[in-house]
Amino acid sequence: MGVVHHSSYLPWMEMGRTELLREVGQSYAELEAGGVFLVITKVEVKYRRPMKYDDLVEIRTTVEKTSKVKLHHSYEIVLVDRGGEASDQVCAVATTELACVGEDGRPRALPALLAGS
């Protein structure tokens, strides 16, 4: 069909979260090395327009709120270029909820760096 499969959006959102974390001075690998893991507990995606292969996209990621153990993100998946045609069209919007767990898989408090996001 020439359109991006719906499951492709989830890795893009993960990249958006990873880059947002990097912007505050922390890599996800460093979190894991410290025994902190962020696991997805909820995902919601609303597809507005199809993305096509070779489209240039931008993932706009925002921390909406935090609690003692959870992070809530929102996303806009934006088409910025299709075949040389500039765009700023939002093709999907999404939200995720992540819980912080330790190596044992049990909930733990978010590190201070993330709790203040």
Provide a short characterization of the protein structure.
By secondary structure, the chain is of the alpha+beta class. It is built from three helices and four strands.
Description:
- By secondary structure, the chain is an alpha+beta fold.
- It has a single domain (6-112), classed as Thiol Ester Dehydrase, Chain A (Roll), CATH 3.10.129.
- 21% of the residues lie in helices and 44% in strands.
- It has 3 helices and 4 strands, in the order H-H-E-E-E-E-H.
- A 4-stranded antiparallel sheet has the order 1-4-3-2.
- A hairpin with a 3-residue loop joins strand 2 and strand 3.
- The longest helix has 15 residues, at 9-23.
- The chain is elongated.
- The mean pLDDT is 94.
How would you sum up the global shape? Answer: elongated
Would you identify the regions where 5 or more consecutive residues have pLDDT less than 50?
Answer: none
Strand content: 35-45%
Biggest sheet, spatial arrangement of strands: 1-4-3-2
DSSP strand count: 4
CATH architecture: Roll
CATH topology: Thiol Ester Dehydrase, Chain A
